[in-house]
Structures
1.
Amino acid sequence: MKKIPTLATASFVFGAIAFGSFSVAMAEPVAQNNEIKAKYNFTYSKDMQKKIDDRYGNREKETLEDLIIKETYPLVGKDAAKIDVEIVDATANRPTFEEMGKVGGLSFQSFGIGGANLKGTLYDNSGKVIKTVDYQYYSTMDPMTRYKWTWDDAEYAFENFAKKLANK
C-alpha cells in the first residue's frame, strides 16, 4: 500500500489545500513485472533504431516497450509463452525531451502526425508459432492533434495491434 499525501492529491484533484494523509492501494503497471517482460523480445528496424539514436533518445525505447506490453499482455500475454515484437517505425505526436534538445525550434507546443508500424509473433510453450501479425496506423492531422500526448497515435496503433494478435 502506498501513502499519498492528501495535500498533493487535493491540490491536483480539487485545487484546494488539505492536511493529513490516507492510504490508497495502487496497482503496479504490468510492464514493471519482470516475469511479464521476460516473455517479450523487442527488436527495431534499422531506420527505427537510427530514429531513436538520432532524435528520440534511448529513454523512449522503454516507453514504447512498456506501452506495447500494457496493450498486448491483457489480451494475449497469458496465452503465449513468448511474444516477438518488431517496431518497424514509431512516430511521436510531440517532440521527446531529447529531441527538443537536439533539434532547434521544437517545443512542447509542437505537434504532428504520429503512429506506428509493428510486426509481432506469438509462440506457444513448444515454440510453435500461434500467430503472426503486421499492423500499421498513422493518424491524419485533425483538430484534436494538438491535444494529444507524445505517443498518443503510436499507443492507438499498439492497442489495435494487440486486438489483431488476439483476434478481436
Note: The two ends are 35 Å apart (CA to CA).
2.
Amino acid sequence: MNEIEDESSHEAHPRRRWSRADPDAPSRGERRREALDVLALAHALADLSDAQLARMPMADDLRELVATTRAVRQHIARKRQVAFLAKQLRRREDELAPIRAALDHDRLAERAQTARLHRAETWRDRLLREGDQALTDFLAEHPAADRQHLRALLRRAHDEAARGKPPAAARELFRLLRDLPDAGEPL
C-alpha cells in the first residue's frame, strides 16, 4: 500500500527536471551576470563627459540614446532610462567590445595621469622636506631637469613658508615636476 501511495503522489507531483536543450547555452546565472555587466556599461556611458562620449566608437543612434539618458535627472526616471539603454546595448552585443575597450583605455590613461600627479606631489614634498639630498636623487632620476631653476624654486618655497606667505613657489615647483617627462619617457 505504501508503494501505491508513493506512486500516486509521485504522479500527482512529478519531479521537475530542468534540462537545457543546448548544453552549450549559458546558464541563467551567466545570463544575469552578462546583463548586469551591460547595465554597468550603460551607467558608465551615462556618466561620461561630452568629450569622452564623442571619442566612443558607437553608432549615432546609440550616441543619441546615451545623450538622452544623460539628460534625464530625476532618480527613478534616470534609473529606468539607464535600464532601457542597457536593453538596447544587449541587442547590439557585437558593438560592445569596442566600447568596452575604449572605456578601459580611458580608465588606464586616467590612472596613469593620477599616478604621474602623485609622483610629482611626492617629489615636491620630498624636495621641500629633505633639500639637497632629495635634489641629488631627483636629478639622478631626471638628468634633463634644470638644477639651478629647481634650487631657486626650493629657496623661494622655503622663504615663502618662513614668511607665512601663500605657497606660490611650491605650486610652481609642482607644475614643473608634473610637466617633466618620467625617467623612462623620451623628452
Note: The longest helix spans residues 93-130.
